[in-house]
Write a structure and sequence with these properties.
By secondary structure, the protein is α/β, with parallel strands linked by helices. It has 16 helices and 17 strands. Strands 2-1-3-5-6-4 form a 6-stranded mixed β-sheet. A 6-stranded parallel β-sheet has the order 9-8-7-10-11-12, with helices on both faces. The structure holds NADP nicotinamide-adenine-dinucleotide phosphate. The site of NADP nicotinamide-adenine-dinucleotide phosphate has 25 residues, from helix 4, helix 5 and helix 8.
């Protein structure tokens, strides 16, 4: 192997994509079982590797040299093979530092809770201490000399300023889980979550709903990979390249979700946008029709609106976990707050704001087949669309112009 990533399970890794965007070397994802690690590390049939769960500590005995930083943290994520001599370093430290600085969440002088006691939590502890936090408290499921319990966190440390999640809780596919409830943390300024799949975890969405800044782990992932590439190649890689790769990956993973009134042009604009950005397109109403095996008017007339809304929630939960897709939703998709949260997990929500006078009734929309019904719906739903949306876009005369307006926000 030239360069690559070793770990036990790597099905969702973005590392190949990030390293190959640099164009310096080939990069393979290499699943190594625990039983095979000894053979892999003693054969040394690679030029440079990154190391992930569960081998960041296990590789250390095979190294001839190790950086002071990796030694201090007790974990190695980058190994270079220089003519049979293995040198280990830790670029998670630099990646974590870059993430925290990018987030704009102030650490100096603050009280920070770190959730978890694994390798990433240890890295976070080192970074946050070095950034000048007033106190850094580790929270674990198992209380110890160095970690408090979750019970103690919510009884003794509700004045924490920042929470950093370094556990896998909330990661795909268990995206409904959150490691801690934010209910009583009245002082909280920011939440950092090292998870990047989904892009917005339940913990992050809970924070934003309370007006608290929240940042995911994608920038850390890209920054640590770029720092590893610098070690592999001996070349300095500019911050612009890091930011460009981060934006490329984000755009590839992030959904563009269109919400708005029936007849506001979500499907037409969505298809236009998808074609222009070479992204897949889905329409949640079409997914409902497919799932139910009948048209929406028939679902309404045979089973009623509540049944339709339940089907819609099921479809939205599935669509919300897609990546890099333009998703057009039905007019009532955002009436349930849980649907909005599902759509936000990987998506940016755009409200297509078309004046009520331009919304035309049609027979295939049971709630919008008369002008009066549309006007009544508009009055009720307008604030709901505004509250659900990350961005409101006025609908232009052509779908291309509206798509352009959306692209300006990406
Ligand atoms: P790890 O060694 O497995 O540690 C995770 C810690 O989380 C454990 O020590 C455990 O602490 C806690 N934990 C595990 N399962 C839990 C559960 N079900 N409920 C509550 N706590 C649980 O993993 P890691 O290497 O530190 O990675 C942690 C997370 O960071 C992973 O999601 C990983 O994908 C992510 N990560 C992201 C980046 C990035 O670049 N963004 C880089 C590295 C890792 P206690 O037993 O003490 O509670």
């Amino acid at each position: 192997m030239d360069h690559g990533l070793i770990g036990e399970h790597l099905p969702h890794s973005f590392s190949k994509e990030i390293h190959e965007k640099l164009g310096y070397y080939g990069y393979e994802l290499c699943e190594v079982s625990r039983d095979d690690l000894h053979r892999f590390m003693t054969e040394r049939d690679f030029r440079g590797i990154n190391v992930t769960i569960p081998y960041k500590e296990a590789v250390i005995p095979y190294l001839h040299e190790i950086s002071d930083r990796a030694k201090k943290i007790g974990a190695v994520n980058t190994v270079v093979n220089k003519n049979g001599v293995l040198y280990g370093d830790n670029t998670d430290y630099g990646g974590m530092t870059a993430l925290i600085l990018k987030s704009g969440i102030e650490i100096k002088g603050k009280k920070v809770l770190i959730l978890g006691t694994g390798g990433t939590a240890k890295t976070a502890h080192a970074v946050i201490s070095d950034l000048g936090a007033a106190s850094v408290i580790t929270v674990s499921r198992t209380k110890s000399d160095t970690a408090i319990s979750y019970g103690e966190a919510v009884s003794l440390h509700l004045d924490a300023d920042v929470i950093l999640n370094a556990t896998p809780v909330g990661m795909f596919p268990s995206t409904d889980a959150a490691p801690i409830s934010l209910d009583s943390f009245n002082n909280l300024l920011g939440v950092i979550d090292v998870i990047y799949n989904p892009l917005n975890t339940r913990l992050m969405l809970d924070a934003r709903e309370r007006g608290i800044k929240a940042e995911n782990g994608l920038y850390m992932l890209v920054a640590q990979a770029i720092l590893a590439a610098e070690i592999f190649t001996g070349k300095k890689i500019s911050a612009e390249i890091t930011n460009r790769i981060y934006r490329d990956i984000l755009q590839k993973k992030q959904n563009i979700v269109l919400v708005g009134m029936p007849g506001s042009g979500k499907s037409t604009v969505g298809k236009t946008l998808a074609a222009e950005l070479s992204m897949p397109f889905v329409d949640t109403d079409e997914l409902i029709v497919k799932k139910a095996g009948m048209e929406i008017t028939e679902i309404f007339s045979r089973f009623g609106e509540e049944y339709f809304r339940d089907l819609e929630s099921e479809v939205i939960k599935e669509a919300g976990l897609l990546n890099g897709t333009v998703i057009s939703t039905g007019g009532g998709a955002v009436l349930r707050r849980k649907n909005v949260n599902e759509l936000k997990k990987n998506g940016k929500i755009f409200f297509l704001d078309r004046p009520v006078s331009e919304l035309i009734p049609t027979d295939d929309r049971p709630l919008a087949d008369k002008k009066e019904k549309i006007e009544a719906l508009y009055g009720v739903r307008y604030p709901i669309y505004c509250a659900a949306a990350d961005i409101t876009v006025g609908v232009s005369e052509t779908p291309e112009n509206t798509a352009d307006a959306i692209k300006r926000f990406l």
